[in-house]
Amino acid sequence: MSMLTIYNLSETIGSQPRHGERYTGFNAIQDQLNTLNVQFERWATHPELASGADQETVIAAYADEIGRLKEQYGFQSIDVIHVTPDHPEKVALRQKFLAEHIHDDFEVRFFIEGRGLFYLHVDDKVYAVLCEQGDLISVPANTTHWFDMGENPHFKTIRLFTTAYGWVATFTGNPIASTFPTLDQTVAGLS
User: Fold this and answer.
1) Could you say which residues of the chain have pLDDT below 50?
2) What is the rounded distance in angstroms from the CA atom of residue 129 to the CA atom of residue 152?
3) What CA–CA distance (Å, rounded) separates 9 from 58?
4) How far is the first Cα of the chain from the last one, in angstroms, to the nearest whole number?
5) Domain containing 93: what range?
6) How far does CA 96 lie from the centroid of its chain?
7) Which one, of 181, 119, 124, 174, lies nearest residue 10 by Cα?
8) Count of the separate structural domains present in the chain
């Protein structure tokens, strides 16, 4: 289930955020994110793709959708990132993505498999977006954010960037990510 939780930073207990306002309906999530110029869509996935499909095969399977986005936004870099619980670099990747950062360019991620938790830090609010298979989310250029893939990650996403060199982050040094629920805590709270 996709979900959006909006935390107001002026309503914290110590450094911990209070319970945020939660949205689970697709249209409600989309409406809230539209106010930030964040695109949130649901695409049909291609179940015929094997879990181990390589980057070229995945990109070819979504060629029409990717072509539409390339035409609309001028994306120059496209890749596929696939992280599983047995990935040898899962701890390092998680730590890198968990650090609050910005990108100079506009990026989009489409979840082919699995899930992940995006946090967008905008002014005095933090928007936690739980993305699942079939969800597409954009992060506008210069939007402060971080991403949690969990301790035992399972996701495959197509990433699109408006620059030719792909994922390049400028880290803020703000430890804010450590004060918010992790992906694992968020999912456990849904049970």
Assistant:
1) none
2) 19
3) 39
4) 12
5) 3-188
6) 14
7) 124
8) 1
